[in-house]
Amino acid sequence: MEGWMQERARRTRNKILDGLVRVLVDNGPAAVTHRSVASAAGVSLAATTRYFATKDAIIEGLSARTMEGYLSDLTRLMQRMRDGERTGISTLDDLVMQVVLNGLTRDRDHSIAWCELILLGARSSSGRELARDWYDEADRIWQAIGDMLETSTRPRCITPTVDRAVGLLFMLHPLAPTREEARRILAGESKLSEHGLVREDDNDDPGSEPRGTKRDLINVAIDLLVREGPSAVTYQAVSQSAGLSRGAPSYHFPTVESLMEAAQLALFRRAKTRYRDAFKEFHADRMDPDVLADLTTAIFFSEAMVHNEENLAFYSVWVRSAERSALRPPVLKALSDQQESWGRTLGQMTDQPPNTFAAMQLQALFLGKLLRAISTASSVGEIARARGHFAMALADLRGACEE
């Protein structure tokens, strides 16, 4: 009898956590309440409060289960490889491909929920501690798998490999690609624009930047995003913070999503200006891997340590766009512009035409390392190790571009 009761409790608890996944994917962290989770899970409100006394407890429960599930999947894969089964994985790049493909397609909902959780957790000490535990375990298991592959894998190679996989997931989730589209993009067989995901004729006209009241509303929305996250951006909160009438935000922005889109675009423009200014101030006769590693590290350090809150806000909206099509235009524009910029920079280093595949790999590494730093509150010493990772990746990419 006791065993049956325990099994029933386990099933109910998992149903509640599955309900939280549904709420996060459909409506984001702002919609998480005991009532919304109970409704999505198909259980009573009383059952939800019995197993999870607070909203934070439900979120922490899903965070722990998600981490355990992901690490268990990797452990099973490692055991299959030890048993000599055919897994289709012979290099770490194969592992990156499989993990990212599954995250974008088969396990999409749970992957998006994890992205939401890792960013939400960055706002609390307990969330950052859980993220550190996740990254430590992921690095350990990826290293163990790497040790089993024919290609020698140095321990220092694993961290950037895990970061690249995380970066690719964050980058590509807003595209909502099919498995074949994702495979072709990840394999470098096609560009984003070939799938109609990002239009090549998109342009970013600096003269279109908003002015007056519209600009003020956007700045208030950004402040709310930075301080509290996407859930804080409402017409009422924006109008109160701006000292305007309740109808002012809706006059300039017909939906909250359109205001969030404008805030996202403004955040991207700020980041792009910072990157451009850094390149203008940095003079070198030739952009070789060492020089570019220095510059990339300097920009990374600034984004992780000085502008970490803005980046947390930016990527919180980025993840939301995976399910909110209204938020996608500025995200896809940012993704395309970033890839084009990395491609031009790599072209200067190799004296070759821009390589979009190599650019995507470097872009993913930068983003993945930034997300690790933000979500775990990495120390200066930990962030400083990024320079070696960038240098190693750039040397490899130069070799690939010149082949």
UniProtKB/TrEMBL annotation:
Coiled coil segments of this chain: none
Pfam families, alphabetized: TetR_N
Residues of the HTH tetR-type domain: 10-70, 211-271
Keywords from the UniProt entry: DNA-binding, Transcription, Transcription regulation
Record-level Gene Ontology MF annotations: DNA-binding transcription factor activity; transcription cis-regulatory region binding
Annotated SUPFAM superfamilies: Homeodomain-like
Origin superkingdom: Bacteria
DNA-binding region: 33-52, 234-253
Name of this protein: Putative transcriptional regulator, TetR family protein
Source organism of the structure: Pseudooceanicola batsensis (strain ATCC BAA-863 / DSM 15984 / KCTC 12145 / HTCC2597) (Oceanicola batsensis)
